[in-house]
Amino acid sequence: MLHLDDIATREVLPGLFGKFLHGDKSTLGVWDIKKGSVLPEHFHENEQITYILEGELEMTIGGNTTVFKAGNLQVIPANVPHSALALTDCKVIDTWAPVREAYR
């Protein structure tokens, strides 16, 4: 059994701090994102599911911009461009399938 505190935190981009757990077919990411941090537009082969635990995160997915708040969920299909701006400090959970090799 693991505990989240046992997983090392990585600053993936300025202000985006993540902890990652990889299974055989998927990856789980737990993020602390600082207000004003930007995730530039990108896409990947992985289907992604995003869940906002705390805060407000403005996301642009496939050209549509929405402000996500605590409790909001979103499926981002593979290869769809997306980006984000943290309007407040945020806590976010992401899952990716297949495994998100970029976060190994």
Describe the structure.
This protein is 0% helix and 58% strand. The chain has 104 residues and is an all-beta fold.
Which descriptors would you attach to this protein?
0% helix, four-stranded antiparallel β-sheet, single chain, mainly beta, six-stranded antiparallel β-sheet, 104 residues, Jelly Rolls
Outline:
This protein has 104 residues and is an all-beta fold.
Instruction: Give the tally of structural domains.
Output: 1
* Element-level helix/strand string: EEEEEEEEEE
Report the CATH architecture. Sandwich
* SS class: mainly beta
CATH topological fold name: Jelly Rolls
Beta-strand fraction estimate: over 45%
List the uncertain runs.
none
Using the CA coordinates, give the radius of gyration: 13 Å
Number-wise, the strands total 10
Number of helices: 0
CATH class: Mainly Beta
Superfamily (CATH H level) name: Jelly Rolls
The largest sheet is: 6 strands, antiparallel
Mean pLDDT over all positions: 98
Q: In which range does the helix fraction lie?
A: under 10%
Topology:
Elements: E1 10-13, E2 16-22, E3 27-33, E4 38-42, E5 47-54, E6 56-61, E7 64-69, E8 73-76, E9 82-86, E10 90-97
Antiparallel strand pairs: 1-2, 2-3, 3-10, 4-9, 5-8, 5-10, 6-7, 6-9
